[in-house]
Amino acid sequence: MKDHDGAVWFRTTFDLPEGYTGKTFHVGLLQVDDYDIAWVNGVKAGENFGNYNHHGYDVPVDVLRPKDNILVVRVFDVGGIGGFVTNAFWSNPTIRGNWIYRKGEAIDADKFPKPEFPNATPFSSPAVMFNGNIAPLMQMSMKGVIWYQGESNADRAEEYRSLFPAMIKDWRQRWGLGDFPFLFVQLANYEAESLEPGSSKWAELREAQAMTLSLPNTGMASAIDIGEAGDIHPKNKEDVGKRLALAAMKAAYKKDMVVSGPAFKAVNMDNGVAVIEYHSSTGELITKDKYGFVRGFQIAGEDKKFYWAKAVLKGDKVEAWSEEVSRPVAIRYAWDNNPGPLDLYNKEGLPATPFRTDSWPGVTKGLVFESGLVRF
Known about the structure:
Layout: E1 6-14, E2 24-33, E3 35-40, E4 43-49, E5 54-60, E6 69-77, E7 83-84, E8 100-106, H1 126-134, E9 145-147, H2 157-175, E10 182-185, H3 201-211, E11 218-221, H4 237-251, E12 264-270, E13 273-278, E14 285-287, E15 297-300, E16 306-308, E17 310-314, E18 317-321, E19 330-333, E20 344-346, E21 355-356, E22 368-370, E23 373-375
Parallel strand pairs: 9-10, 10-11
Antiparallel strand pairs: 1-6, 1-8, 2-5, 2-7, 3-4, 3-6, 12-13, 13-18, 14-20, 15-16, 15-19, 17-18, 19-21, 22-23
Helix pairs in contact: 2-3
C-alpha cells in the first residue's frame, strides 16, 4: 500500500492441487515488503523479512484440507510501497485471486528501527547472481557467450550503454581468453502497439544493445519481429537460435556472409522527404508488402513531435515522409515497445534493426541502479 506504513492484514483462500500426496505444501508468497507473518487455517506457518527476499513456508498437510484453506498474512511495511511486490507474472495459484484486507497498527517509518539482515535476490543484488552462477565457471575454457537479457534494465536503458559493455570487458578479462565471441539478443517486440508515436524504454534499451556492437567480436540477433505482445518470454526460440547461429558464423568462425538485417547508415532530408540509406554489408533490401510500402517509421520536425510516416522502398533506399511535417529533422524506425508488423527485411529474411537519427534525451536519462531501486 502506498499511503500506510505499519501493519496490514490480508486474507484469502486456496485449494490443494487435485490428488496432492505430499507431506507438506509450499505456500509461496514471493517478495513481501517488508515483513510478514503467515497463518494457514489458524496455525502459524512462519515469518520472514526483507523486501527482496522471497518469502514462503512449507505447511504440513495435516494442517490442510482439500479445499478452502484460509491463508492470513500480516504484512508490516516500514516506508515506501509495501505489500506483495513480485510481478504477477511470477505468481502461483496459491496467492492468485481475490484477497480481503484491513489496515492495522500505523507507524512513523522515519523513527521505526530497521535491523540489518541478509536481503537480496539475483535481480536486485548484482553480486548474488555473478558469484553464484558465473564466477564458478571461470576456471573452465569455452568458445564464447550467448546473452539474452535486458528487460529488467529497461527502466535504466541509458545506463545500460555503459553497464553492458563493461560486463563484457570484465568477463573477457576474468576468463583470460582474449576477446572471445559475445553474442546477444536484442529485445523482442512486447506489449500493445502504441496508438501514437512516443517515448519507449524498450526502444532505448535496444539502442543501448546495438551500441555495444562497437566492441570487437560481438554479434546481435534481432527479435523485433518474433516477440509476443502478451508474453515477455516469446515462444519462438527457433528463429532466435538461427539468428544467433548466423552471428556466430561471423564472430566465432570468421565466415564472410550476411548475418544480420539491414542496418541504418545515413539519412538525407530532401524537400520534406527522409531518404534513408542502409549499409550494403547487411544485405539487399526487400519489403514484404506487395505494394512496396514500409511500416514502422516516425518522423519529426524541429518541435521534436513525432508523427507516423508513410514510407516506400525505392531501389536500395527507403523514402519516408508525413504531411504533418514539412521540414523533417529526425527519423525513427521501430521505436516502440512493440512496433507491430514490420515489412523491411533483407533477402536473407532478416529484419531491419531499429534506429533513430536524433540524440534527444530519452525517458531513462540519468536513471541509475541503487539498492534495487531507480534513483531520480
